[in-house]
Amino acid sequence: MFPAVSEAVAHRRRTASSERISALAARWRRPFLIALGVTVGLRVVSELVALVSAYGVAFPHVVAHDPHTLIEVWNQWDTGFYLSIAAHGYPAARLTGAHAAGNPLFIAFGPLYPTAIRLVHVVTGTGLLLAGQLVSALSMVVAVAGLVHLAEKDEGHSRSGTTAMLLVAFPTAFFLLADYPDSMALALAVWAFIAVRNRYWVLAGLAAAGLFLTKYYLAIVVVALLVEVWEARSPGDHRARSRREPLLAAVAVVVPTLAAGVGWMVFCARRYGDALAFVHIQSRWGRHFAFPWTLVWRTGGDLIHLRFLDTSTASVMELFDSVTVVLLIGVAVYSYLRIRRSYGVMLGLAACAFTFQTILYSETREVLALFPFFIGGARWVDGHPWRERAVLACFLPASYFLISRFVTNHFAG
Predict the structure, then answer these.
(1) What is the mean pLDDT of residues 345-366?
(2) Calpha distance 228→54 (Å, rounded)
(3) Which end of the chain is more exposed for a tag (fewer CB within 10 A), N or C?
(4) Distance of CA 342 to the CA centre of its chain
């Protein structure tokens, strides 16, 4: 009798487990199919644009002669920093040549992405450049799948597709597949919110810590996660356990990022004698703390007097970054009022991080990690075909223009 009962219990458990797996697969099948499709599509289109921009109509002959060109064409700008960190780690403070004065520029770049490159390089045996692009591609699939899932919960199936479309059509979306950490940052931000909304507080905290170690300023996401924790509390329940739960959840969300920050400052102090070296190094690019009116005055003058067209003084990217920041502020307000408060807080804090400085610098790329920006955009264009067409009419030519500038080494100047 007892063996029969045990077998029946085991059968029910197997059945329940199988049903859970089937339900999970059904829930995530559409998000991952969309993510895989848009990742492959973005890679193919951006690759073609990059090759045409770099080699003209002769690019098929160049690729046939050296297939490595398909990945080498993206080896531009900050890629060298990430690959060097992946290969050799962070250099010591006492160097010769270009980095002899003060902290080396490498400390401006977070350690998580180059660590992932190093890991993939060791495991697969591929070159560092290809390893970085594999990390970015995998991160993008995970990020877009999570983004579609979040958008479905907030906005429904139609707007989740629109959200993914706006992301991959955005003018700097090609960075999601280059040797840059933007897709990793996007994935960590999205899944931090998925975790906190499912009450996996520790996982949300670990994802937030990973964000800090990918892009330092994204520690601001912790504040947005705390908004989610506050809104997830049980209303009207005054039991002691219920009152403690938000506090314990907040601690679980905050502590990993604090630990990551302290650990990184200890490393910087020992390596460079400056615990805030990763902050102070920003001055090497001319970025200093300033109130927003300083930025408005400087940037406004560049735009009004067309100085942004003179690459010896500024860059055409200043125009793109200015438009991006204005849009970001608008979507932040819209998201806070119409979608989710945590989204508005996240975007608002990012806008502060971008504007409390003396210059704009790559904000058009940085917004890729701010996924509520695209959810808010999808809410605005969905159901309004002319809005969607207008947005795409602006995004797609700009994408071609920026890819061309990137692969020809003219992106920022």
Answers:
(1) 92
(2) 45
(3) N
(4) 17
Instruction: Give CA–CA dist 271/12, Å, rounded.
Output: 57
Distance CA 98, CA 206 (A): 36
Q: Which of 317, 345, 343 is nearest to 406 (CA)?
A: 317
**Is the distance from CB of 176 to CB of 186 less than 8 angstroms?**
yes
State both tokens at 60: 């098929």
Dihedral angle over CA of 311, 317, 319, 325, nearest 10? -150
Q: What token pair was written down for 236?
A: 């009207």
Paired tokens of 51: 């090759």
56-75 pLDDT per residue, tens: 888 889 989 989 989 999 98
Structure-token match 């959200």, residue found: 163
Residue located via tokens 């119409």: 338
Q: Residue 77 has what pLDDT? A: 84
Q: How many residues does the chain have?
A: 413
User: Alpha carbon 286 to chain centroid distance?
Assistant: 23
Angle (nearest 5°) at CA 326 between 401 and 378: 75
At 235, which amino acid appears?
P
CA distances 155 to 63, 144, 303, Å, are 43, 15, 37
Place of tokens 């002669």: 65
Q: Running DSSP on this structure, what letter comes out for residue 307? A: G
Non-local (6+) Cβ contacts of 178 within 8 A are: 74, 76, 79, 133, 136, 406
pLDDT for the residue 240: 47
**104-158 pLDDT, tens per residue?**
788 889 999 999 999 999 999 889 999 999 999 999 999 999 999 998 887 666 6
Whether the Cβ atoms of residue 195 and residue 203 lie closer than 8 Å to each other: yes
Work out the angle between the directed axes of helices 201-214 and 240-272 (0-180°, nearest 10): 20
Dist. CA 285–CA 279, nearest whole Å:
12
- Cβ atoms of residues 234 and 136 within 8 Å: no
178 and 136 Cβ atoms separated by less than 8 Å: yes
| DSSP of 351-368 | HHHHHSSSS--SHHHHGG
Please give the Cα distance from 41 to 253 (Å, whole number): 35
d(CA 117, CA 220): 25
